[in-house]
């Protein structure tokens, strides 16, 4: 999931491998490669060995796509349309939703801890 990203580590690297990005979102590497064909905005750099290297900008866009497709359940065509028509609004919505999910998870954990005290 997108929430699994380690924000303190992400600023230390300029490029991430397909495997690292797939692990950040809990998806298969093949899904990322497929999304590259469906969303031309995802343009990882490639080395001479054809190894994909994702930048933070790529990862941020993948987070938006992940939110639309995996979290909110949009079809790829609808997600592509939303990104093309209102990328900034979609990004803000994704950030808000991820914050709310993280807050919910934290509250759930606090409730679990409180319940164990009783």
Structure explained in plain terms:
It is a single chain. With 118 residues, the chain is mainly α. The protein is 68% helix and 3% strand. It is built from 5 helices and 2 strands, in the order αααββαα. The protein has helices at residues 7-10, 18-25, 29-38, 56-71, 76-117; strands at 45-46, 52-53. A two-stranded antiparallel sheet has the order 1-2. The longest helix has 42 residues, at 76-117. The radius of gyration is 16 Å and the shape is globular. The relative contact order is 0.13. The model is unreliable at 1-10 (pLDDT under 50).
Describe the secondary structure blueprint for this structure.
Elements: H1 7-10, H2 18-25, H3 29-38, E1 45-46, E2 52-53, H4 56-71, H5 76-117
Antiparallel strand pairs: 1-2
Helix pairs in contact: 2-3, 4-5
Could you give a quick summary of the protein structure above?
The protein has 118 residues and is mostly helical. The chain has helices at 7-10, 18-25, 29-38, 56-71, 76-117; strands at 45-46, 52-53.
Give a quick set of tags describing it.
118 residues; mainly alpha; 2 strands; 68% helix; globular; disordered N terminus
């Amino acid at each position: 999931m997108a929430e699994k990203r380690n924000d303190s580590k992400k600023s230390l690297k300029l490029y991430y491998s397909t495997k690292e990005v797939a692990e950040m979102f809990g998806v298969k590497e093949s899904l990322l490669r497929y999304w590259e064909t469906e969303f031309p905005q995802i343009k990882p750099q490639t080395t001479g060995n054809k190894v994909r290297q994702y930048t933070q900008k790529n990862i941020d866009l993948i987070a938006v796509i992940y939110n639309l497709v995996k979290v909110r359940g949009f079809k790829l065509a609808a997600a592509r349309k939303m990104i093309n028509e209102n990328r900034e609004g979609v990004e803000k919505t994704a950030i808000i939703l991820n914050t709310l999910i993280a807050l919910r998870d934290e509250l759930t954990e606090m409730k679990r801890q409180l319940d164990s005290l009783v």
